[in-house]
UniProtKB/TrEMBL annotation:
Its main location: membrane. This is Oxidoreductase. Pfam families: FAD_binding_8, Ferric_reduct, NAD_binding_1. The chain crosses the membrane at residues 21-41, 47-70, 91-112, 132-152, 164-182, 194-215. It comes from Actinoplanes ianthinogenes.
Length: 447
């Protein structure tokens, strides 16, 4: 590292460590608070009802955590990275799914035993009460969202459709809050528990509104992003150059991405995560996309001067997270975009090796730029072509070791199709590359 960049990187790492400790402490303290609140409320009418009450508290707490994940708080994003947060979002969603099944089941079983009637009769009986009905509707919507988010169903949906379905989350939140107002008992023990509970939810909802609405609106009003140029990179790939005011105040870094909308040329709910394909310079931003979904396929038709609405920057796939002096950048297909930006980043010091996996040389997007950048910084660029098969595994451990003999002493950045990324990460584990040196961006973003 150069003496100019080292202090900034070290300060970033220190702030990251502080942020991670604070986030873990926040989670632990809230889990403990729920247990204290449950104990203070005392048992319900029977054991089944008591279990249902505890599960309901955890369901509400996990929903609040999910809102904070969806809010994309900058501190959390910088500390863990959007790829890891998206994985947590998925696991949190599955936790909510099981709690949504378990909480009402135990509550209804408890009331059924108390009233001496069958489970189904109790469902009909309680559904006549509006607060309970709201909770049932919220539970049903959660089941729909989670069902459509599993991999089998997800593969059949376009990104835009999947993203639109996730707007049901906001309906669920509204119904869930109303259900808690009328049905919550454990957090109504005293003023302290009420202040804590509604303080937590106010923080979660406030973070969501600020992160997903207020801050993006303010930023886009300030920067006034516009399309400056549209450049065809290949038959199915296009780059969009975006300009605006005071872009240096976005504090974007090479390797990060934005959520892009193009008002007037796409529906307002159509949004896609596209990485910056060039290091930001304070004057312009560039995204490069392959025409797969509705939004990306229509980019080449954007007129010059079209308005651009962007949320971000997001992601921890940056040079600031390096731990070693040398680096390997591994890309597959259109996953080359953040890798190309990183190769241009002045903060990425030390020797660099680039491994670019494509079916054929004709599929290698931005190859000319990569070669020029590699020449300027004396990096090694390997173009890995051919069809993967039993006789050719480009990212097998022995192959990686042959291409980069000192790979265990380098940071490794990986971005590409999920099967390729999984294969690379598996090989890195088998080569015993320390996990702190491995940085992956899979774009598993969920709405």
């Amino acid at each position: 590292m150069t003496t100019m960049t080292q202090p900034r990187v070290l300060a970033f790492r220190r702030s990251n460590r502080v942020a991670r400790v604070a986030i873990v402490a926040f989670i632990v303290l809230n889990l403990a608070a729920v247990q204290v609140m449950f104990a203070a409320a005392g048992p319900a009418h029977n054991l089944l009802g008591t279990i249902g009450r505890l599960l309901g508290l955890y369901l509400a707490l996990v929903m609040a955590f999910q809102l904070l994940l969806v809010a994309r708080l900058p501190m959390v994003d910088r500390a863990f990275g959007m790829d890891r947060l998206t994985s947590w979002h998925r696991w949190t969603g599955m936790t909510i799914f099981w709690l949504v099944l378990a909480h009402p089941t135990f509550v209804l079983l408890g009331f059924a035993r108390l009233d001496g009637i069958s489970f189904l009769d109790e469902v009909v009986n309680l559904a006549k009460q509006p607060p309970v009905l709201l909770g049932m509707i919220a539970a049903g919507l959660i089941l729909v969202i989670v069902t459509l988010s599993v991999r089998v169903a997800r593969r059949r949906l376009s990104y835009e459709t999947w993203h639109a379905i996730h707007f049901l989350l906001y309906v669920v939140v509204l119904l869930g809050v109303l259900h808690q107002v009328y049905e919550g008992t454990a957090f109504k023990v005293n003023l302290v528990t009420q202040a804590y509970w509604w303080g937590l939810w106010t923080f979660a909802l406030g973070s969501l509104l600020a992160g997903r609405l207020v801050v993006p609106l303010i930023r886009n009003s300030r920067h006034r992003l516009r399309v400056a140029a549209v450049v065809s990179e290949s038959d199915d790939t296009v780059s969009v150059h975006v300009t605006g005011r005071d872009l240096d105040r976005l504090h974007a870094r090479a390797g990060q991405f934005f959520l892009w909308r193009f008002p007037g040329y796409n529906k307002w709910w159509q949004v896609n995560p596209f990485s910056l394909s060039a290091a930001p310079n304070g004057r312009s931003l560039r995204l490069t996309a392959k025409g797969i979904g509705t939004t990306s396929a229509g980019l080449r038709d954007l007129p010059i001067g079209a308005k651009v609405y962007a949320e971000g920057p997001y992601g921890a796939f940056t040079a600031a997270h390096r731990t070693r002096g040398a680096t390997v950048l591994i890309a597959g297909g259109i996953g080359i975009t953040p890798i190309r930006a990183l190769l241009e980043d002045p903060d990425l010091t030390g020797h660099v090796v680039v491994l670019y996996r494509v079916r054929s040389a004709q599929d290698a997007v931005l190859l000319g730029e990569l070669r020029n950048l590699a020449d300027v910084r004396q990096a090694r660029l390997h173009l890995l072509t051919g069809r993967t098969g039993t006789d050719y595994q480009p990212f097998a451990p022995e192959r990686l070791l042959a291409l980069v003999p000192d790979i265990t002493a380098r940071d490794v950045y990986v971005c590409g199709p999920n099967p390729m990324t999984t294969s690379v990460l598996d090989s890195l584990r088998r080569l015993r590359v320390p996990s702190r040196q491995v940085h992956a961006e899979r774009f598993r973003l969920a709405g």
